[in-house]
Amino acid sequence: MTTEQLYQLYLQHPVISTDTRKIGSGSLFFALKGAQFDANTFARQAIEAGAAYAIIDNPEYQLGERYLLVEDVLTALQDLARHHRRQLQIPVIGLTGTNGKTTTKELINAVLSQHFKTQATQGNLNNHIGVPLTLLTIDATHEAAVIEMGANHQKEIELLCSISQPSHGLITNVGKAHLEGFGGVEGVKKGKGELYDFFRKSESPKVGKSESNPAVFINSDDAVLMEMAEARHLKHVVYYGTQDIDNLISGEIIENAPLLTIQWTNNTTGENYKVKTQLTGAYNLNNILAAISIGTYFKISAQEINAGIENYQPKNNRSQIVQTVTNTLICDYYNANPSSMAVAIENMDKIDAKRKVLILGDMFELGHESPAEHLTVLQKALDTSVDERIFIGKEFENQKSKVKSQNLVATFYLTAEDAITGLKSHPIKNSTILIKGSRGMALERLVELF
After folding, report:
1. Which end of the chain is less packed: N or C, by CB atoms within 10 Å?
2. In the listed set 261, 276, 311, which residue is the last one of a domain according to the structure?
């Protein structure tokens, strides 16, 4: 079964299934292998549930003409998505970065959707399986796509670019995350830089409309991104940032209480605009400006851009505001790394609130750098002007004795369960509370206490 043959079947059955519990009638079932299962064993079940064909890579399970044998199912899925992408003449915006990928993707989609029919990565399906699945949901009615690309080791972004072949690109930032897989900060920089490498080496696909000429969008305030771009001699770069010079658009925060209000300028026309958002966190300024710059580049009106930004509501516990009877919660516990921890703590210092509390959980996947990074975050939290600090996890506990503070004003709990017990005895009221930690800490269990 060649990719072209499989593509002809896909055109007849353009719904892809990888889970027999969610089989669509007439779909193509791809029997992917996982760490704990081999979906070849479910091929018959998929056919019986209504799949038109099952794509398998084990001849033992080829029970008839509707069981299509390929050398490797995952490779077949990726090749199918790559082939489909080549048929599309629409802008495909590919983005990656250490922090803010999903929020930026959602903001870009919210802005572009004001003017175009768009398709975007759902949730965090941003890996070697999720990206192909997203591409295969794009049909002839779509006018633009936004593809998020995640990675925890080098060569992943290179692979995802080869599949999605973005016509436009964006790196949100480069910071300290997945240090264990990347082999340190320089490894992260190299890995994320694979997006810029794609634009340096490749001719981007045709994207139809003249205003959709390929471009890379870069935050000119970010010295690391600027250095990475200059080293590759990138052409067709569009800048955005806080300064007027050389940026397509520029902007600043005019209110952070805790929701952000942004003032931005179209530097081509000189016109100024104000937009109230449903986002918190000064670090989200760059994400918002990225979306505004892409909207401006695609000639979307300022009114439509602002409508997209204003109507976007964060979810999935990323910088999400939850108002309780007595407290304002900043729920940011989807994930955490040293870079995102630092900007979240800095934002608490800037927020206009009467009483502020930090609740920070351990950060994962930092390898041998974990002790030093937890100590840095711990010290930063102690040096920040807040009213109460709570640290949860053994990594923070292990660094408690090393902080440089004459007066250690903080509470430490080894587990979230210990924290729940402690907070029930000493409830927090009338405060703005940041709750942030790695997903594995499951800090969402604390919310009901406030």
Report:
1. N
2. 311
Tokens for 268? 């081509």
Distance CA(85)–CA(160), nearest Å, equals: 12
Helix (H) or strand (E) holding 238: strand 237-241
Domain residue limits at 100: 88-311
CATH number of the domain bearing residue 397:
3.90.190.20
CA distances from 102 to 122, 124, 128, 153 (A): 9, 7, 16, 18
Strand order in the sheet with 28-30: 16-17, 28-30, 53-56, 67-69
Tell me which residue has tokens 């044998």: 69
Distance CA 37, CA 29 (A): 15
Tokens 């608490």 label which residue? 348
- The pTM score is 0.87
The residue ranges of DSSP E strands in 47-187, in sequence order, are: 53-56, 67-69, 92-96, 118-120, 144-148, 168-171
Q: Is residue 28 part of a domain?
A: yes
Among the candidates 70, 103, 128, a domain finishes at 70
Instruction: Dump pLDDT digits (tens) for 269-325.
Output: 999 999 999 999 899 999 999 999 999 999 999 999 999 999 999 877 777 899 999
Q: What is the pLDDT of residues 37-58, one digit of tens each?
A: 889 999 999 999 999 999 999 9
Provide the mean pLDDT of the chain. Answer: 92
Instruction: Judge if 134 and 23 occupy the same domain.
Output: no
